[in-house]
Amino acid sequence: MRTNSRLAEDLLIELDRDGGVPLHRQIEASIRTSIRAGRLRAGASLPPTRTLAAGLGISRGVVVEAYQQLVAEGYLASRSGGYTQVAASMPPAAAGVGSAASMAAPTAQPATRRVDFGYGRTDVSQFPRAAWLRSIRTVLTSTPNDRFAYLDGRGMPELHQALCDYLNRVRGTLAVPGNVVVCSGYGQGISLLIQVLARRGARRIALEDPSSDDDARVLAGAAGLEVVGIPVGPDGVQVDALDPVDADALVLTPSHQWPTGGVLSAAARAEVIRWARRRGAIVVEDDYDAEYRYDRSPVGAMQGLAPDHVVYCGTASKTLAPGLRLGWMVVPAHLVADVTAAKLLADRGSPVIDQLAFADFLGRGEFDRHLRRMRPVYRRRRDALLDALRTHLPDLRPAGIAAGQHVVAWLPPDLEEAAVVAAAARHGLGIQGVGPFRIAGAGPGGLIFGYAILSESAIAEGVALLATAIQEVRGS
Question: ∠ at Cα 315 (312, 317), nearest 5°?
Fold first, then answer.
């Protein structure tokens, strides 16, 4: 049952008391125009007649008369309890030229997909709501008032300390609270860094090839930096290709290369650090999913090897939920002030309650418990994918299987990547190839299988569909 608290208390109606037009007609016209223009949507509640009359300084009978006329015309509908709403179905005039509905561009309906191996997703249905609610309650009942005012753009001190405790313990970083900057996910973090580097005179940024095409690559180009690709091998970026490119920054995913899954060896990491020191360059370490590992020992973060040259970037997007928009950077001391200034200019700082809740969530060990609970869930899904590939497509070569939430499977030479992706789509299967993420545009064909949100049965069905699609390609 509806309550008065859910009803609108205000409605913009301008009355001309000296214009000669009856007041109820002016109210009718104003509401009618708002509905036609889309300012009042179908189902929107209008203020009670008594409330609107009091706000306009007129008698209630005038408003009642206006509402009754609009109900008769089909613009409004009376509801039980005396409430009045915009009608669910508009009269023809309301859907004419100028209405929001008529001005909206038609959108193409996506093809129905039986299974979607889309990458970069986490199973948000597993978000630890009860534990997060406990942290929210703790924050709201115990946080000092001054924490809700404007503060340092780096974020909340409580979260800085909690992140350092966690990252130093689990990821092997050498993080100190004064060097942590909280941001709205990795996308904002890399944007702030690129802005700062460009203002400091950087001209060229190196990226792994292949690598993600929706953050550093786009942002660097927009900032006027030249983007160069460094080839990736089975074990991550090929460090012997770094010196010729003369880059000012290098973006890496060393613990689980995206998308190929390679892990940069200790010797290669040391060589990257030596390169950065020779060049006076910055290494951006995107540690996007290292917490999810299944068949290997933990791999420490590069930041612990050279905190003066490595920017460590982490996020809750793959571990908790991307909708939190919560990320963090551990920045070399000489960049902290500039990155903080860029963050303040961007949005005056990230939401306080979310930061404090995550700090409490970390400090109580809930983050560790959530990861321990999710690792076997994702491992079962990964195992289902590998079993299905062995059964239906044994000539595909899976790679990067020991960690993360996706697997790359390399295609045999007789299969063309784009043809396989297109055939899969015709069979109701969503899957992407590696090719679109290459910078130089050359390399073997491969498919990216995101499995994080799929059930084991859906994974098996999807691989069977892919096998049918590949048979079609080979038979054409």
Answer: 155
